[in-house]
User: Fold these one by one.
Assistant:
Number 1:
Amino acid sequence: MSLFLLLILVAVVLGIIGVAVHGLFYLLIIGAVVLVADLVYAALRFRRGGRRHRIAR
């Protein structure tokens, strides 16, 4: 979960810097790519994590 939050924070910071600084639009693009990759990672992790079955003894 902490990796998810860290990547969200990195994406937001890169996006803000990309918008604020003239000529660094590529940072906004990189931030968007990191955000999309993070959402895909979280979706795969949370979907896979819900299928745990207990073994009945």
Note: The CA atoms of residues 6 and 17 lie 17 Å apart.
Number 2:
Amino acid sequence: MSESVWERDLLIPERNKLEETLKTDVCIIGAGLAGILTGYMLWEAGLDTVILEADRIGSGQTRGTTAKITSQHGLIYSKLLKNFGKAGVWQYADANEAAINAYEKIIQKEHIHCDFLRCASYLYTTKSPEILEAEAKAARLGGISAELTQNTELPMDIEAALKFPNQAMFHPLKFLKALSEPLRIYENSKVLKVTGQKVETETGRVWAKHIVFACHFPFINVPGCYFMKMYQERSYVLAVQNATIFKNYYYGIDDDGLSFRSDGKNLLIGGGNHRTGAKPVDSRYKLHREILERFWPDCSIAACWSAQDCMTPDGIPYIGRFSKKTPNWYVATGFGKWGMTNSMVSSKIITDMILGQAEIQKDVFYPRREVCLSAIGGYVKNSFHLLTDFSKYILPHNNKTCPHMGCPLTWNPEEGTYECPCHGSRFDSEGRLLAGPAQKDLSVK
């Protein structure tokens, strides 16, 4: 991933590597937004907490986000209504709306200067408006003031847009830097093994009453079996100057739809989504460049980068106890493209569970929730991909294989990376690990 606009003018001070044995109340694996927020809430509650990060604070998916703090997660509420009924719609909407307000409260309380700004969020389509009409009805069941409109800042003609008022945006690394300052964090401390209450790195270990997996994609396969319940998807962002600066942000629901939000002098354009490891046909920035040539031919590209998201077949995160066999382990994963609010939602749920203030069972975020009929297609599609890619491992091939579970890797020429189509692990051209769930570098000899 190239450098994002968030990284360019910000330096988070380095932390020490774990080189000792510690005992603590809670050990959190991962110092991205979900891990830091959970650590902050537990620290506020008076619990001794240690956070272990394989690389640097915010060096994973947090630095690649477009940083929209919103409860508008694509067409999520129509799906929730089919799969979980009105109660599921209400719980999801209430949790994510509360997350937006929670950011504002923390920012005000801690006096964090992170360019936090209230705005509206829009879904838009250049095709039939019927799907947005259905989404609006479902969102209103969750208490959201969803409004259909054709009045937007977009330069192209649209059929309809769905507006959610009073959403927000911010600078994620400025927020993360300030929030992480009082927390006990060890960087360059990759977790290699977790058993019971023991967390082991190459040079140290932590004994903890509670262990939180906030590491994007859980690297432990059994128990939990998250490798069977998720895949990863890449998307691409261009930051351009001398283009329209929007006051609000937009997300296209069509197959060729793009997202737009502004940051200072930059317009951020996101899109080109594909399953990690899928062989490219065209440039991943093709749609971005087409829209630039059409509406802003005199703009200049300030930055480009990519991001990777964990996708669940039903579009809902897994938040709660890791598995039945590990009552002191917790997981926060599968945020899709909506990691800002879902990080806040997961930190609140997991903190309440550790403090004994809530026992999340079969709710909408429950990691072992039942497969709903209308979500079966997503599970079948993911299983088909897994079987297809695993079969390549059994058959004769010349591909390099992922050290996670042996899937043959594909080469992404645009980014110069080896990628796993099964679970999304990524490696640079020299074989160095860029993203898990793999834990080891790749041999490229």
Note: Residues 76-110 form the longest helix (35 residues).
Number 3:
Amino acid sequence: MQAGLILLVEDNHQDELLVLRALKKVNLANKVEVVRDGQQALDFLFCEGEFVNRDCSEPLAVVLLDLNLPRVNGLEVLRRLRTDGRTHLLPVVILTSSDEERDLVASYEGGANSFVRKPLDFKEFAETVASLGIYWQAINKPVWPR
């Protein structure tokens, strides 16, 4: 069985590179799509806008979603995913630099499957992302695709 795609929603170029490097180290980098704002994430997930020709039947393993995004913030992306029958069961991991309690609570109340604070230390960041990739690609059994 082929593992699904990882969608990384990240507007910080350095964090994007760190995530991709960490996933590549555990042989998951060939299954990652990157979008840089919340609207792009929604367009990708619902095959709209610039992604209208994307094959929406391609299974997704997980969305790694930053909170502080341009155009549409991460909590709004999460809300839209959870209220749409096509994506309401899609695993979403909040991957953020925020350590605000209100962001943690709002993420879980909004239906996030996990909340992970981006470690400041490069090695710890890489290990955290690699663990996330392995868990959501190899260990977790998703309901997605619909």
Note: The longest strand covers residues 60-65.
